[in-house]
Inverse folding.
DNA sequence: TAAATGAGAGAGAACGTTCTCTCTTTTTTG
DNA sequence: CAAAAAAGAGAGAACGTTCTCTCTCATTTA
């Protein structure tokens, strides 16, 4: 029960008077209403995320989420049909953000740098508060929460499987390319290397080293060493 | 609601009729009564573990645990004062088992072998069912559950901190010794290596590779590569 | 027979969810 | 364009269920 609610709907009235009465079904998709709905969903998701970080998926109650969002249960349930739905949505976006970091991999010159940077990006992202100023709690907690939930919740498991499948594919493609370029030892089992690197990276992300005083720069050689160890690159790459 | 319960108390009656009435206060500690109490506690803990693996700490209800243990709530609460207490006990023993694996580290000839074996032992242990025959679910789930709980439950966090502190000390001692023996590069930051190896190992344990079809032997070179990468041993050790 | 043990009903709180009602905004109608 | 109608959004009480834990009373054990 903080300073919630704002002037409620009034906030969206004075947006801009230029766009009015689309009156056809397009309004449903792009109109003022639709935009407001999106904003509200966002509000709920942000609040839920904070609650889940604080108390866990099962531990956080709908009332807790309602309070954090400054909303009544009746209002909240207009946007999400169940707690499950919120959990799924949050799991999905969280895992998707992870997957998106991988997309930037191709920006690096060689495969070892690429992996190192992806790892560092992950740790950086996870130890930051999610948008908005002020130091809030790390989102690495959510990472653990999602993984725990995925072990017994079938739909969350499916979500994780989806994004991790994409990540594995992307990594595998990059590794294959590097192999053909002669950057890494042709003997290396790429499938295993992908799975191992994913697991190993997850371990480091979960520990949230930056929150424990280990600076990000200190992790650079760690990721590099892991990549070198698992991929066995040709000498020229191994020695930095 | 499987084939639980057994003949309940009857199980402990016909143990052996030889030892009866020690009658002094020592009986409280070592007598038939005390042994029975221990057995009951064990029964509860085993049941609770199964439930927690199946539904999570928060997800499993006391009724579920009672059913699994073949016990009434009244009986169960005679042995544990709260659900919290059961969670703490299970977290503690689970983490302790992890720490105990480390104790066997000194049996290896060199530091790389030692770490590799510790890693493999962990994975083996975690992917096995806990005592008793029949394939039950992996205890790697419990690992994730404990870690998730430790992020918001202070007493579980303290338990984890305790055992992980011991593990870190033990690892650090082994690394220092290896450094002095000239087995590893004197430049290596041992503190960071310990923390990284712990995190990385945890990641692999959580993924539970054996349950996904990756045989244990395939992980041997992975652990070896991680150890080599992070510790930078002298040449003779690096090439197996 | 006194103490320990267990079964099971159930108390009381908290849970996720739904219901009813009010108020505002948008669309339709005359 | 004004009035009427419909739809959307929100509040908050209330619902039925489930939760953890306790209490009473019967049974077993020494």
């Amino acid at each position: 029960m903080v300073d919630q609610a704002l002037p409620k709907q009034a906030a969206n009235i004075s947006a801009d008077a230029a766009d009015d009465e689309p009156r056809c079904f397009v309004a449903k998709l792009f109109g003022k209403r639709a935009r407001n709905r999106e904003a509200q969903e966002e509000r709920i998701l942000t609040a839920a995320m904070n609650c889940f970080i604080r108390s866990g998926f099962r531990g956080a109650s709908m009332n807790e989420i309602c309070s954090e969002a400054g909303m009544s249960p009746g209002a909240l349930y207009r946007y999400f049909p169940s707690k499950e739905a919120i959990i799924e949505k949050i799991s999905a976006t969280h895992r998707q953000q992870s997957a998106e970091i991988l997309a930037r991999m191709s920006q690096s010159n060689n495969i070892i740098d690429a992996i190192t940077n992806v790892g560092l990006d992950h740790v950086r992202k996870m130890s930051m508060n999610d948008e908005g100023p002020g130091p809030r709690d790390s989102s690495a907690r959510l990472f653990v929460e999602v993984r725990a939930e995925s072990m017994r919740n079938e739909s969350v498991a499916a979500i994780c499987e989806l994004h991790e499948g994409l990540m594995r594919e992307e990594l595998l493609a990059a590794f294959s390319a590097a192999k053909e370029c002669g950057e890494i030892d042709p003997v290396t089992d790429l499938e295993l290397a992908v799975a191992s690197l994913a697991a190993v990276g997850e371990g480091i992300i979960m520990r949230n080293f930056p929150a424990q005083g280990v600076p990000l720069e200190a992790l650079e050689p760690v990721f590099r060493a892991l990549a070198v160890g698992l991929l066995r690159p040709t000498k020229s790459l191994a020695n930095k």
Summary: Chain B has two domains: 25-81, 83-239. Chain B touches chain A at residues 54-56, 58-59, 141, 144-145, 147-149, 151-152, 189, 192, 195-196, 198-204, 206-207, 209, 214, 218, 222, 225-226, 228-230, 232 (CB under 8 Å). The two ends of chain B are 50 Å apart (CA to CA).
